[in-house]
Amino acid sequence: MTELSVNLNAVALLRNRRDLPWPSVTGLGRIALEAGAVGLTVHPRPDERHTRRADLPEMRALIDTEFPGREFNIEGNPTEDFLTLVETIKPEQVTLVPDDPGQATSDHGWDFVAHGERLAAITARLKRFGARVSLFADPEPDAAQIEAAAATGADRIELYTGPYGATFDDAARAAEEVEKLGATADAAEALGLGVNAGHDLTVANLPALVARIPALAEVSIGHGLTADALEFGMAETVRRFRRACGQTV
Fold it and tell me: What is the pLDDT at residue 82?
């Protein structure tokens, strides 16, 4: 079954427009977990334009005290500052993303051949406190790249689904992109890697992805989910996305 982790960056971005504590990132995270999300995802960028470092202890405490067994997933470029941060918060999952600090959002995966040795060392470091490690990956079933990803010792890859999300008005292109994602997942699974996915996923495009990748472990969704929450509310939106993942709600 594909699980849903709710990315709260867009909620934090809205809050940060004012020097006020609402909307509450932790409060909406609580609603998402109450509605059945498996966990919460954040991407604390260096400029704190989305989730702030000060948010992380609150979300860690929320999960530990009210939702034991759920998961905290922290994404980011593995700078020394980031690694020190996650070693302090100890999320259940760390997703490593090759973001430049100036990027508006994550828009590409790792070159595993070029960065494999560095990622292997970082993966080993993160596993010392028990984290599951996921590596952001482009939807390209290149054997050398997938083999290099597996050689890092990471537990999973997270498929970058942005190109798939961009095909919302073109069914033929959507079918091509979902097949690329599926072929990449097949190659990863053959080498023992679990598969996550994230970026521009919606209630409309999730079912085809889940059907093509039956072993898809988790999707992390923020922008589309937050947009829907403005219309349906956070709790109902989480339930809608869980149903799109194939869950019985």
Answer: 97
